[in-house]
């Protein structure tokens, strides 16, 4: 490998990335990382004002960015997100399925509406967003899909059965997508964060947060920025021989 090839490993210059749930937390950190790596980024979330604020912030970092209001639970929004991104930037190279609904219901109190809402946003939306993006990803020479799952997909998850099961299903879809799309030159991988210091995490009772922290070897929450390196690995040329994989970024908390 020469210097030129090395410098291109994590370089996303000229590539277009969609990040759902991209206006805060892990999604915004990933969007920042992609912009700083040279990519054009479309951030999507439900609120139009949040989308515009995030896009303006990304442009202040020196990147090309737009915000597109999108509800992952509304199937019609998915094609619109892809179409607007392609109309603005001319194509699509990377799709990051990060948006999620963290609904928690004890088994005895689980409702049909709760299960359906989680399914719509955490599983159905991401799967059909991939479908909508496929024609453009197939045309890319650097196509990659990153599905954000969770260590909840791997561990006992009291109170989180709905969320954890949807993430486990998304991990299964990741593997099936990887097998099905490999002949189209599209790599598909997943990233499974452990406990991360985000708005979503801070909505938990402190005792619950302490319990999650104590379950990690590193005994702390991650920062959202600590997800960026792994995401770039899985979606840049640095990960060109990786597909159908899931990387756990969990402070050493899961495989024990």
UniProtKB/TrEMBL annotation:
Entry's transmembrane regions: 144-166
Pfam families: adh_short_C2
EC number(s) recorded for this UniProt protein: 1.-.-.-
Location of the Ketoreductase domain: 15-194
InterPro entries recorded: KR_dom, NAD(P)-bd_dom_sf, SDR_fam
Keywords: Membrane, Oxidoreductase, Transmembrane, Transmembrane helix
GO molecular function, one term: oxidoreductase activity
Enzyme class: oxidoreductase
Keyword DNA repair assigned: no
UniProt KW Transmembrane helix keyword: yes
SUPFAM superfamilies noted in UniProt: NAD(P)-binding Rossmann-fold domains (SSF51735)
Family: Belongs to the short-chain dehydrogenases/reductases (SDR) family.
Protein name in UniProt: General stress protein 39
Encoding gene per record: ydaD
């Amino acid at each position: 490998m020469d210097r030129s090839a090395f410098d291109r490993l994590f370089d996303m210059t000229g590539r277009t990335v969609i990040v759902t749930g991209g206006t805060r937390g892990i999604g915004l950190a990933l969007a920042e990382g992609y912009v700083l790596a040279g990519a054009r980024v479309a951030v999507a979330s439900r609120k139009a004002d949040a989308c515009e604020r995030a896009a303006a912030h990304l442009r202040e970092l020196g990147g090309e960015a737009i915000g597109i209001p999108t509800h992952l639970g509304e199937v019609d929004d998915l094609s619109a997100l892809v179409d607007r991104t392609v109309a603005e930037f001319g194509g699509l190279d990377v799709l990051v399925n990060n948006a999620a609904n963290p609904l928690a219901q004890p088994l005895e109190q689980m409702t049909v509406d709760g299960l359906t809402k989680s399914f719509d946003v955490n599983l159905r939306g991401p799967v059909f967003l991939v479908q909508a993006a496929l024609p453009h990803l197939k045309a890319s020479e650097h196509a990659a899909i990153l599905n954000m799952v969770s260590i909840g997909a791997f561990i006992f998850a009291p109170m989180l059965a709905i969320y954890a099961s949807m993430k486990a299903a998304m991990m299964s879809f990741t593997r099936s997508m990887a097998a099905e799309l490999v002949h189209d030159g599209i790599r598909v991988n997943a990233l499974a964060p452990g406990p991360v210091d985000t708005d979503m995490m801070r909505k938990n009772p402190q005792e619950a947060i302490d319990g999650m922290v104590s379950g990690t070897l590193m005994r702390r929450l991650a920062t959202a920025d600590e997800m960026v390196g792994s995401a770039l690995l899985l979606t840049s040329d640095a990960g060109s021989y990786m597909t159908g994989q899931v990387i756990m970024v969990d402070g050493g908390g899961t495989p024990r």
